[in-house]
């Protein structure tokens, strides 16, 4: 009879404490139980024994433990039982995903990628210039950073929808940290050297995390912390842009709330009414187009094209009215041509080396967290997986190469990636098309930006960062978990310190290979709290077990799996990151025609699941008191179907 197995997420200590009904044989020492296929025959349940794992040496236990921690997704499973030539091909595809999708690339895919690439280019060009200003760098650096990194990512990256380029948070943090020690106005060359060096160290750090399989390190940033951090950063960034919107010349470089507001009101004599009128007008226009696209996703192109349209229109207005509005500040001269090499500007010795390293690590973590989160979000929508560790290597190598070609820290941008997705991108070729558009701009169109007013850059930045304020997520945190909300609030108030508490407790995994199988079911027992530090790990490990089970069923000519039961008896706590993991897992399995069921969540966990409204998506047949009841009821429902 075809059957399925029970898996346990547990530590040896948890296994030793496991309680189960007495086995049929009084002399037996077996302690675990599962339900057989006959469980569907109600009202009695037939109980079967599950043998203890075979004895292992300490070395074997350590080897398995390390394997589960560093390779939860078993990245080399495709290499098993393959010829050397096949392994070589698979190796090239593993390290260079371009070899995986390129052989099957078609003209139809190209058409979709060209449209999406041109669409995100219209957004990337003005954003690149704006974000470079946010990092206190020359505007041209933003365009350089929108050309080389996307090309490198198109070869190394595995996400089909990630649009690469400068992002607001990394720009803000880099500009803040470097300008606290080095003045970008008094020592522009040194500042530029430190920016490139910080980018290099960010890339080294990111690539090292991926190569050493240490991707779980970024999980130290819980969702609650990130929600608060992003909101706080958005507020500070927006206030900083008052300099451009009001036309103030002398403005503080500090990022604290009080100094910024103080600078605004102490320099009221520098306010320019022409700048205010034009700046506020374009800001309202950009915010209006953003709302249109949010309410009607099919009109995504409205908000995507608005920044470039605003740049063009504001530049024309300044050219036509420059004699009447001389007080409006403009970008000025931008050099034409490709990225100049900058490897000779990397700063590897001197009193500011520690600053460059610290800035690189912090911006590296933040940009990596954003890039991987964005990649996974759109991968889940299209039912494919993104390897977090491979993405880290891709983004890291991209930034290392970028630091040698006059680029600063780049990653996957949520706003551009969302536009890329909505525009119908099919592969990373959309990044190549975007880079080609930036190339044309660098070679031929730079003089056109001479009269572009600074106020439009400020309006573009404000419009972009407003989307980082997720007040609905904060409200949800308050309803579901007050402690998570407190972490969010602390992060919001202390965002400039970037103080993220460290701590990691990943549940150990142990496998019962001799467990009895239940037809069409895969039953997994989680024996640890599910929270931000282990939620990503748990997500990857569950998907790996599902894949392995499907492979086993196929190789043994058994019927397909239909249902995955998550036994949550031992899950004593769950936070919002854990809830999101379960919800994402449900969505992914639903697209694969697999049903996810929760069994016996304890009271506190059930309460949070209810408050988060996630139970509504599971429906009446999504939560059961016991695994046995779940198997019996679902099996009966299948039998009743014609």
TrEMBL record:
Q: Show the stretches that span the lipid bilayer.
A: 84-102, 137-156, 163-184, 190-212, 224-251, 271-288, 300-325, 345-368, 428-449, 455-473, 485-506
Q: Does the keyword Heme apply?
A: no
- Write the record's keywords in alphabetical order, separated by commas: Membrane, Transmembrane, Transmembrane helix, Transport
> Where is the segment annotated Disordered?
1-30
- Molecular functions (GO terms): secondary active sulfate transmembrane transporter activity
Q: How does it sit in the membrane?
A: Multi-pass membrane protein
* GO CC entries: membrane
Q: Which Gene3D superfamilies match?
A: STAS domain
Recorded superkingdom = Eukaryota
Kindly list the places in or outside the cell where this protein is found, as annotated in its UniProt entry.
Membrane
Q: What is its main location?
A: membrane
Q: Which residues form the STAS domain?
A: 511-634
Q: Which segments show compositional bias classed as Basic and acidic residues? A: 1-10
Q: Which InterPro entries match?
A: S04_transporter_CS (IPR018045), SLC26A/SulP_dom (IPR011547), SLC26A/SulP_fam (IPR001902), STAS_dom (IPR002645), STAS_dom_sf (IPR036513)
Output this protein's name: Sulfate transporter 3.4
């Amino acid at each position: 009879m075809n059957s399925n197995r029970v898996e346990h997420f547990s530590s040896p200590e948890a296994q030793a404490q496991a309680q189960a009904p007495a086995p049929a044989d009084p002399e037996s020492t077996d302690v675990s139980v599962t339900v057989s296929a006959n469980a569907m025959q109600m009202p009695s349940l037939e109980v079967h024994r599950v043998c203890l794992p075979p004895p292992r040496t300490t070395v074997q236990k350590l080897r398995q433990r390390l394997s589960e921690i560093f390779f939860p997704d078993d990245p080399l499973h495709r290499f098993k039982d393959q010829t050397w030539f096949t392994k070589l091909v698979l190796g090239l595809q593993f390290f260079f995903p371009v070899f995986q999708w390129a052989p099957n690339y078609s003209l139809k895919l190209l058409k979709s990628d060209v449209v999406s690439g041109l669409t995100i280019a219209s957004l990337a060009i003005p954003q690149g210039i704006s974000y470079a200003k946010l990092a206190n760098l020359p505007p041209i650096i933003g365009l350089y950073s929108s050309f080389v990194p996307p090309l490198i990512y198109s070869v190394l990256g595995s996400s089909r929808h990630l649009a690469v380029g400068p992002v607001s948070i990394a720009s803000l943090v880099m500009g803040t940290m470097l300008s606290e020690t080095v003045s970008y106005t008094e020592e522009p060359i040194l500042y530029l050297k430190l920016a490139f060096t910080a980018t290099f160290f960010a890339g080294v750090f990111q690539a090292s995390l991926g190569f050493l399989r240490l991707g779980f390190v970024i999980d130290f940033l819980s969702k609650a912390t990130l929600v608060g951090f992003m909101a706080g950063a958005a507020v500070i960034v927006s206030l900083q842009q008052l300099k451009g919107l009001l036309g103030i010349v002398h403005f503080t470089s500090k990022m604290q709330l009080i100094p910024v507001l103080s600078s605004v009101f102490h320099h009221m004599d520098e306010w320019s009414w022409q700048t205010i009128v034009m700046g506020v007008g374009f800001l309202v226009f950009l915010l209006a187009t953003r709302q249109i696209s949010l309410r009607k996703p099919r009109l995504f192109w409205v908000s995507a094209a608005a920044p470039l349209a605003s740049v063009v229109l504001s530049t024309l207005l300044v050219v036509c009215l420059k004699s009447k509005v001389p007080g409006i500040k403009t970008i000025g001269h931008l050099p034409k041509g490709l990225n100049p090499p900058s490897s000779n500007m990397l700063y590897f010795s001197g009193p500011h080396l520690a600053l460059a390293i610290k800035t690189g690590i912090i911006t590296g973590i933040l940009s990596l967290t954003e890039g991987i989160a964005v990649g996974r979000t759109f991968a889940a929508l299209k039912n494919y997986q993104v390897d977090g560790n491979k993405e880290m290597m891709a983004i890291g190598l991209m930034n290392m190469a970028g630091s040698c070609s006059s680029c600063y820290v780049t990653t996957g941008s949520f706003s551009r990636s969302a536009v890329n997705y909505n525009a119908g991108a099919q592969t990373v070729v959309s990044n190549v098309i975007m880079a080609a558009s930036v190339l044309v701009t660098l070679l031929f169109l730079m003089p056109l930006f001479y009269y572009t007013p600074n106020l439009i850059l400020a309006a573009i930045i404000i419009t972009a960062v407003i989307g980082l304020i997720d007040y609905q997520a904060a409200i949800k945190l308050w309803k579901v978990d007050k402690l998570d909300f407190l972490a969010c609030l602390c992060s919001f108030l202390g965002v400039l310190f970037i103080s993220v508490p460290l701590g990691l407790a990943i549940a150990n995994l142990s496998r019962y290979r001799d467990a009895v199988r239940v037809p069409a079911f895969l039953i997994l027992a989680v024996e640890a709290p599910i929270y931000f530090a282990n939620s990503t790990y748990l997500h990857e490990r569950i998907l790996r077990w599902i894949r392995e089970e499907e492979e086993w069923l196929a190789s043994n000519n058994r019927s397909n799996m239909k249902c995955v039961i998550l036994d949550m008896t031992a899950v004593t706590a769950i936070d919002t990151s854990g809830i999101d993991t379960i919800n994402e897992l449900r969505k992914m399995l639903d697209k694969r025609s697999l049903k996810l069921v929760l069994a016996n969540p304890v009271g506190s966990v059930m309460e949070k699941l209810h408050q988060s409204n996630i139970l509504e998506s599971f429906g009446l047949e999504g939560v059961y008191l016991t695994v046995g009841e779940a198997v019996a009821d679902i099996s009966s429902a299948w039998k009743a179907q014609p």
